[in-house]
Amino acid sequence: MRKKILLCVMLLLCNYLFSETDYYATGYSGIELFFPSKNNKFIPGIKTRLALPFHFFSEINKDNWKELSISSQLSWGSRLLITGGNISISGSYSLLNNPQITLPATVFSGLSFSEGGINGNLSSFSSPSSTYGLTSSILLNKEGKIPVLLQLGIREENPFAASFTIPFTVKTINFSLISLGGFCHLDSSIPSTDDSWFVKDIPYKEEINFGFVQEIRMSVNKKRLQIICGGFTSPYKNMNLWSKVIGSYSLGNFLLKGGFYCGEKNMISVTGKQLNKNLQWYFNPQWVYSLKRIKYGKIKFGSMFAAERNVVKDINQISYMEGEGKVGIEFYIPAFTFRITGGYEGFYLSKGWEEFFDSTEESYKGKIEFSIRKIPYISTINTDLTLNYYPNKHKTESNFNISMSPYNSQKKGWKQIVPSLSISTDLIFLEEKYKSCRIETKALWQIRKGNFTIRGSLGFKLKNS
């Protein structure tokens, strides 16, 4: 009897949550081939990747094949590297599109520098690129002389750029000088057509836009410093300049990271991107306490505070400040990790324009993460729960994820088909009433055999609102 009652309750709940539900099934299939050069000076190593996303519950037509992604990479040792096809490009090249600071993903992020120069990347299996591009890297390195890395890159609807990188060492300090320049053809823009009483995006005419980036990197022991400056020739017939500094300092168990960015108002990047933020800063202190009674055990404390100034494009230059703060604690031992973080985001306005805006776009965010490792037949289990609360909108969002990865790397033959699994769900409540729900499951396969790698994914999503 109890089982029947429970079944009826579950059916009623599913009918309530998913009575008006959209169904999606997506995935991808991909193959990667790698043939090493075997130290031959003339025959390159070749890596080729093919990826094709697919969709169920949708009409299949010839246009679906436009999503097929093909990319290849040819390498002659460290001397010459050519990447082409449906690729993405990273490094200093991305600053021509957006030089603003990207905040660390967590308050526990470690010491690292972003890539420099122009780096071509094969298309991702899970998010294939449909844009064609080509990059090349040539290393000029003669014995007794400072090496120079020359790089070129171009991508559809993105700039053509060239750069050179010169690494050298002075005593114990490692330096790297990077210079990059590029240009992009901009079509005439279309101003925003919303109902606001001012124009957000100032229109401009078709022309070629130029940009440059100059960067110096320094590192010694556990200290890093990155100084970057650049400029864009604006469609409004003036030069826009920007600069930023990113650094980290480690002393014993203490680590401090931070960054600062400033740029002119109403800037437009080489690719035509409107840059509304003209001032940013953040700092991220961390401290680690080692557990003497637990081998490799440690407790880490972290926090991050950030602020930025946004400029709304109109004749009166309305601007507002936005800020956020996060704190967290992490407990780590080789078998598992537990992490909890919480934070606040909001902004306040300046110049007396509060009457035209809702100046209470604030939110409270919390996240709990748990990872278990070295379980028999399973590499890692990761779970996390995120809660976001917007008090002035009376809106609550929650997200729960769980993923499980097997020891595929230690398996051979048919045993490699055991997939990695993940489940994700979102719930949104507005004014204390249910608004929408999403549940998604995904399986990922990876099979390696010699020079061949075959990857595949299948996901199923339920969503109602």
Helices and strands in order:
Elements: H1 2-17, E1 21-35, E2 45-56, E3 69-76, E4 80-86, E5 88-91, E6 118-121, E7 132-140, E8 148-155, E9 160-170, E10 173-186, E11 207-220, E12 223-233, E13 239-251, E14 254-263, E15 267-268, E16 274-275, E17 277-290, E18 298-312, E19 318-333, E20 336-349, E21 363-375, E22 378-390, E23 395-406, E24 420-430, E25 433-449, E26 452-464
Antiparallel strand pairs: 1-2, 1-26, 2-3, 3-4, 4-7, 5-6, 7-8, 8-9, 9-10, 10-11, 11-12, 12-13, 13-14, 14-17, 15-16, 17-18, 18-19, 19-20, 20-21, 21-22, 22-23, 23-24, 24-25, 25-26
Structure characterization notes:
- This protein has 465 residues and is mainly beta.
- The protein contains 1 helix and 26 strands.
- The protein has one helix at residues 2-17, and strands spanning 21-35, 45-56, 69-76, 80-86, 88-91, 118-121, 132-140, 148-155, 160-170, 173-186, 207-220, 223-233, 239-251, 254-263, 267-268, 274-275, 277-290, 298-312, 318-333, 336-349, 363-375, 378-390, 395-406, 420-430, 433-449, 452-464.
- The strands form 3 sheets. The protein has a 22-stranded antiparallel barrel.
- Strand 9 and strand 10 (173-186) form a beta hairpin.
- The protein is globular and about 60 Å long.
